[in-house]
Predict the structure of SdpA family antimicrobial peptide system protein.
Amino acid sequence: MTSTSTELRPEPTGPGTGSIRQLVLFATASLLVFGYLALSLFYTLPTNALSSRHSKGVRPVLNILTPENWAFFTRNPEGEQIGIYSYGADGSVHNLLNTPQGSPANLFGLSRTQRAQGPEIGFFSANATQHWSDCAGYLDDCLRDAKAKPALKVKNTSPVPTVCGEAYLTREKTVPWSFRNQVSYDRRVEHVAHLDIRCR
């Protein structure tokens, strides 16, 4: 008497079944993410034939959820900026900022000294909190007035010091682009601090 038994065999799967499933999942997720970004970018563009800035549909929602504009990536160029200058014996003013980054002095962007200067000047600004003087004139006039006041002594603790000796820290605003042809200067100093910076 012979007995027959049925063996349960696993369902055959090809060697690439798992890989195909992962590939489909990745493609679907990428399509959703990039589709959403493309849609949000389209709706932040100026008014066009397909969409108006004053529409009440998808545009307001996407502008809140994904604010793709320059303010999202960088600070306002018309906002307050910190500057630092030296005042020569002959009355000449020298900017002590190591900018622009792409200049030959910065090895056309290869030198990182200019990047290190930001925290250094931020340290000076934090120390000068109680020593700012109001100024509403041109840069030369502000520095001349500040020179007559006693300098605040600050120790430069930066590992790569770029500013030493007598210097003038300023808080200034760039002239708005729409008024650039109406004035002879490109920035206006609002506050100034006279510093005596001691390096190690």
About this structure: The chain has a mean pLDDT of 80. The longest strand covers residues 187-198. The two ends are 102 Å apart (CA to CA). The chain has two domains: 20-65, 80-198.
